[in-house]
Amino acid sequence: MSVITSFKIINEFSIIENNIKKIKSSQDILTFRLVIQDSIKLLSFILKLVVRKNFFQKDIPSELLINAISYLPYEYGKICQCVCMSWSKNLKTNLSKKTLLYKPINIFLKESLNIGFNASYMFKINKHIYCRNYLYFCKINTNNFELTTDNNFFSYNQVIYSDNNYICTLKPEYLYICSLNMEYINKIIINQISGLIIDNNNNVLVSTRECFRIYKINGLLVKEWKLSDGNHNFGSRNIELNGNEIFMIYYSYNCVNVFSYGEELIRYWGDFGRVWKF
């Protein structure tokens, strides 16, 4: 079914077609002017009809507005809320809250703790936060914020990632995946890691200087794609997840890239394509 039929404006378009024929054959300016005015009235009527009728049964304008603003820097999103009441209402909906990223209104420093060294890695296992570098190691109890030393330095000195289900350690040529009790589950052959995270579906997401890979927990490679500037030494790419979106912080380019699981670059913030100058 054509759009004209759906909107029941066949007669109006027939009149407009006849008017076009009259305009082409008109010999005097008065006829030309009258036919043009009649056509404009018909087109205005059709425009109002289309605007009033929610043809797609969904709020297309609001979705388009929110998606368009999601590509803008954070401060522009706040400015757009002040444009008019309609925009302000649309940018406070549940869809907007899921799509747009907002900064917290206030962040306060609750407490600080001197651990006595510069930590290269921090990870949480159960109720403890572990801090380590290649020489020192400590843990912090999240219940009472108490700092203690730990005799299990060599058990955790190669940990690079942990969550509520897994602990990952990196050893030459292998990424080891263990349970929270440090029981071996599997290992994946890999030489270098810039970012690592395991999602709720047990997919292991790994970024390196050259590429991005998605593995199953059993080591099966599911997806791989190349990343820009693989030869740049300062190519750290930490990653985080938000739903089905992969956020990659790329320090070398001063930017954040957002990918889908299917390799699509959805959006980015920062100076994409321009390397830091040291």
Question: What does this molecule look like?
Answer:
With 278 residues, the chain is α+β, with helices and mostly antiparallel strands. It folds into four domains: 50 residues; 40 residues, no CATH class; 46 residues; 78 residues, Thrombin, subunit H. The protein contains eight helices and 16 strands. It starts with a helix and ends in an 8-residue tail after the last strand.
- In total, the number of strands is 16
CATH architecture of the largest domain: Beta Barrel
Q: CATH topology of the largest domain, what is it called? A: Thrombin, subunit H
Distance between the termini: 61 Å
Rg, Å, rounded: 29 Å
Describe the largest sheet: 4 strands, antiparallel
Biggest sheet strand order reads 1-2-3-4
Which stretches are low in confidence, meaning pLDDT under 50 for 5 or more residues running? Answer: 55-60, 274-278
Which CATH first-tier class of the largest domain would you pick? Mainly Beta
How many distinct folded domains? 4
Give the helix level as a range of percent.
Answer: 25-40%
| Structure classification | alpha+beta
Give the H and E element order: HHHHHHHEEEEHEEEEEEEEEEEE
What is the count of DSSP helices, taking H or I runs of 4+ residues? 8
Overall mean pLDDT stands at 78
Strand content: 25-35%
Shape: elongated
